[in-house]
Amino acid sequence: MAEMLNRQGLREALQQTGEAMYHHRHPFHLKMHAGELTRAQLQAWALNRFYYQSIIPIKDSIILSKSYDGAFRLAWRKRIVDHDGDAAHPEKPGGIEKWIQLAVATGLDADYVRSFRGVLPGVRYAVDSYVDLVSKGTLLEAVSSSLTELFAGNLIALRMDAMRQHYPWLVSGLAYFQGRLTQAPEDAAFAFDYAFTHATTPELQQLVVECLRRKCALLWAQLDAIHYSYVEPGNIPPSPGVLQPEVSQ
Amino acid sequence: MAEMLNRQGLREALQQTGEAMYHHRHPFHLKMHAGELTRAQLQAWALNRFYYQSIIPIKDSIILSKSYDGAFRLAWRKRIVDHDGDAAHPEKPGGIEKWIQLAVATGLDADYVRSFRGVLPGVRYAVDSYVDLVSKGTLLEAVSSSLTELFAGNLIALRMDAMRQHYPWLVSGLAYFQGRLTQAPEDAAFAFDYAFTHATTPELQQLVVECLRRKCALLWAQLDAIHYSYVEPGNIPPSPGVLQPEVSQ
Known about the structure:
The structure is a homodimer. Helices cover about 70% and strands about 0% of the residues of chain A. Chain A has eleven helices and no strands. The first copy, chain A, has a single domain (about 25-230), classed as Up-down Bundle (Heme Oxygenase, Chain A), CATH 1.20.910. By secondary structure, the first copy, chain A, is mainly alpha-helical. The longest helix of chain A is centred in the C-terminal third of the chain and has 29 residues, at about 200-230. The interface between A and B is medium-sized, with 31 and 31 residues.
C-alpha cells in the first residue's frame, strides 16, 4: 500500500513526474531552445499554442464553478484576470492578448490567429481533453492538473533567453512570458497548498500525481502534433484552413 | 448561398471530401501498403487503433440513445452487434474480438492490448473527440460522422491485398477486415440514406459534409500520432506504459 507523504514528499513526487514528463524535454522545445526552428515553425507553434492559451480561462471558469468556498474562488479568479485582462486597466492586456502579440511578432495576422482556423486537429483534441479532464474531474483533480505551473518558471526563463539569442525578431512578442515569470510560481504555490491540504489519503495523493501526469501528456501531445506536421515536410494534415507555411520562409 | 443538392450531388460532395481528407492517403498507410512497415510499427498501429475500435459500440450506443424511432434503432443496433458479437453465436466473434486477433498476430499480448495501457495519449485524445462529437451533436451530425464508411471498403480491400503480399505473418489476423468488407458498405448506404433524407436544407447538407470532415480529421490525427512516435526514433512520449518497440524487432 502507498504511504501518506508529507509536504516535502508530495512535492518530490510531483517534481519527479515533471522531470520525466513535462514538455521542457520535448524534441520541439529542444530545437526551439537550440535556435534550430525556422520562422515558419515558430509561427506554427505560436498559432497552435494559442488554442491552448484560449481555453485557460474556460477551464479556470469550470474550476471556479466547482467550489463552494468563496475564498478559494476569489484566489483562483486571479487566473482568469491574468489571461482575460481587466476592463478597468486596458493599458495592461491579459495573457491571451499578449500571446496574440507573440503570434503577430512571428508574422501572423492577429484575426487569423483568433479565428482558430489554422489550428491542427491533433492540437485541438489534446487541448479539448484538458477541458474534459477539468469538467469531469473533482475539484481536487482539476486543481492538480494545473500543477505543471511548478515547472513553468524554469522553462519560461530558459525560453526567453533562447528567444533573445536565436530569434531576436521575436523580442517584441515576449510580454506574455515576462508576465508568467511571476504569475506561474504564485499560482503553483497556491495549487500545491490546495492539493496537499485536500489530498487526505495516500490514494488521493496518488490521484494528484496522476492528474499532473495527464496534464503533462496533453501538453506533450500538442508538441507532437506541431512537430510532426511542421518539422518534416509533407506531414501537414489535409484539413481545410490548417496553417500552410509560406514558401518565402 | 449554397444550393440544395440532389441525392447524386450530396454523394459527390461527400466523395470529394473523402478523396481529399480520408486517411487512405496518410503517409503511414502509404508506408503500410508499400510493405515498408516493420513488425514493431504494425504492433503500434494495431494496439493504438484498438482504442478506436473499442469506442465504436460506445459511440453507436450514444447514437441509439438519440433516436425516438424504433425502426432506426433496430437498424443501427446491427453495428453494436457487429462489434460486440452475439452471446447466442459465440462461434462468430464480434469486430473488437477480431481486432484482438489481429493485434495478437502482430505479436502482442491480448490482455495488454485490452488494458489500453500502451495507447498513445495523442490517439486517445483524437478518439475521445469522436465520442464527444457524437455526444454533443444532433442525431444527424452523429450519423453523418459515420460516413467515412463510404470509403472504408476500398481501403480495406487494398489493405488486405497489401498485407497478404508484404506481411504474410499477419494473415491469421485478417478476419476483422474480411467482415468489414461487407458490413461497411451496408452501413454506409443506410447512413447516407438517413443523411440525405434528414438534411432538408442546404445548411444541413453542409453540416453533413462538415461532420464527415471532422471525422476524417480525427482518423488522420490518430495516424499522425502513431507515425510521429513510431516511424522516426526518439519520439515516443514519456507517458508511463506507452508501447515500447521490442529491441529484437
